[in-house]
């Protein structure tokens, strides 16, 4: 009897094909990436690095990892690359361990300004084991470099993160470099969200400005879940030991055997990212986001749109996420800078174009998508978050039930299914 899991995978495939995947950190990988990921390489243990493994039988695995490393170095034009980190958060942990001693100061963009948990957020290792200092965005939603400089001079960080997860503007690495140089900090770019855009030439490369780069491989880069750590010439000059420090942080510091099937799939996705067609894809991702943002009344210089819902009411992030999901559009609720409601019940949504662009959607399709989103958002008017904290949980439960019965959302869902079904998804028939 076939495993129950395959029935569930078929169910998820239907959702992925007939809905609009708009979480900006998600994408659809190619059939070849899927093949490598589902390969027999998962059977092998390979603690260590190529030529220096603890177990035997790693001749082929060594070739695969060396190939992935070479491709990463070529794609990003850097002298060193590491491909074993299981995903972005462990990779950031490895970088922090390589650069800092416990208790050292690390600085990153605050979570509520669009930063990442691992850049010094409360409850993350990055603030539990290190002294975290957060900088933020100003009223224009852009990074406040005056504040960043002031904080850096005061706290003398060992490491400064230049990276974001919910930030619709380009990053100015030159400004980060100036501040990092002033205080002697190691500058690390977390490009996870925008790596594809950097490869496509839409965003400037951080390579000339930073010491280390971390990128996940599954967002705009369109590979399997995973991460790559890169060291620049500047980084090697700053600390000639940095390569072995990163290796030691990965194993024995944090991980055991690498996921060889994942390494192979990363290599396949890097081969794809080196092709001219990938550049075209990345440019289209940004063009689509620009149009989508404009149609929704905001701006984007990236692959994502951070949409404030305050014009529709108070604390509507959850309600919008639920309503959009009922209509077949997947986004995530998100805080907006200066969040007027609460970090747990935020006032915005975050949505993006990488996955839709992979399916072949273009500007005219984004206008249609924005139209559906606006129609859905009309349905959450009047569903404002209660000001009384103890009423919020039950209120949102009731909202969910109500939205599941909403006829207008069902009509929109049927329209979206007809539309989305025409666009192919790799690996889904
Ligand atoms: N979860 C990722 C994102 O959605 O941006 C960050 O780790």
UniProtKB/TrEMBL annotation:
CDD domains: SHMT. It is found in: Cytoplasm. One of its GO terms (molecular function) is pyridoxal phosphate binding. Its cofactor is pyridoxal 5'-phosphate. It holds the Pfam family SHMT. Its EC number is 2.1.2.1. Keywords: Amino-acid biosynthesis, Cytoplasm, Methyltransferase, One-carbon metabolism, Pyridoxal phosphate, Transferase. GO terms for cellular component: cytoplasm. The keyword Methyltransferase applies. Belongs to the SHMT family. Homodimer. This is Serine hydroxymethyltransferase. The lineage of its organism: Bacteria, Candidatus Daviesiibacteriota. The gene is glyA.
């Amino acid at each position: 009897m076939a495993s129950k899991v395959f029935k569930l995978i078929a169910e998820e495939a239907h959702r992925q094909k007939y809905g609009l995947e708009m979480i900006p950190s998600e994408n659809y990988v190619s059939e070849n990436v899927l093949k490598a990921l589902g390969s027999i390489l998962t059977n092998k243990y390979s603690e260590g690095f190529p030529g220096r493994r603890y177990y035997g039988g790693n001749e082929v695995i060594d070739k695969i990892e060396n190939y992935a490393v070479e491709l990463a170095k070529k794609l990003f034009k850097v002298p060193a690359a590491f491909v074993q980190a299981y995903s972005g958060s462990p990779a950031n942990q490895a970088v922090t361990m390589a650069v800092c001693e416990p208790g050292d100061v690390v600085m990153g963009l605050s979570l509520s300004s669009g930063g990442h948990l691992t850049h010094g957020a409360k409850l993350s290792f990055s603030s539990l084991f290190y002294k975290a200092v957060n900088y933020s965005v100003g009223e224009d939603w852009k990074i406040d470099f005056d504040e960043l400089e002031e904080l850096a001079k005061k706290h003398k960080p060992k490491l400064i993160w230049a990276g974001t997860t919910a930030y619709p503007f380009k990053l100015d690495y030159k400004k980060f470099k100036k501040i990092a140089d002033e205080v002697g900090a190691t500058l690390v770019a977390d490009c996870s969200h925008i790596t594809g855009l950097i490869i496509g030439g839409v965003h400037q490369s951080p390579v000339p400005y930073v010491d280390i780069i971390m990128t996940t491989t599954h967002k705009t880069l369109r590979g399997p879940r995973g991460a790559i750590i890169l060291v620049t010439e500047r980084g090697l000059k700053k600390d000639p030991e940095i390569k072995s420090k990163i290796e030691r942080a990965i194993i024995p510091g944090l991980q055991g055997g690498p996921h060889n099937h994942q390494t192979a799939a990363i290599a396949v996705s890097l081969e794809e990212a080196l092709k001219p067609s990938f550049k075209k894809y990345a440019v289209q991702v940004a063009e689509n986001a620009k149009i989508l943002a404009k149609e929704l009344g905001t701006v984007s210089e990236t692959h994502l749109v951070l949409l404030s819902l305050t014009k529709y009411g108070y604390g509507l992030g959850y309600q919008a996420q639920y309503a959009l999901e009922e209509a077949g559009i997947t986004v995530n609720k998100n805080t907006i800078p200066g969040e007027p409601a609460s970090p747990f019940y935020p006032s915005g949504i975050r949505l993006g174009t990488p996955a839709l662009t992979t399916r072949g959607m273009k500007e005219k399709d984004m206008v249609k998508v924005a139209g559906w989103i606006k129609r859905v958002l009309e349905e959450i008017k009047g569903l404002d978050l209660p000001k009384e904290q103890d009423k919020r949980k039950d209120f949102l439960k009731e909202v969910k039930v109500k939205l599941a019965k909403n006829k207008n959302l069902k009509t929109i869902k049927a329209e979206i299914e007809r539309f989305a079904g025409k666009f192919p998804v790799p690996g889904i028939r």
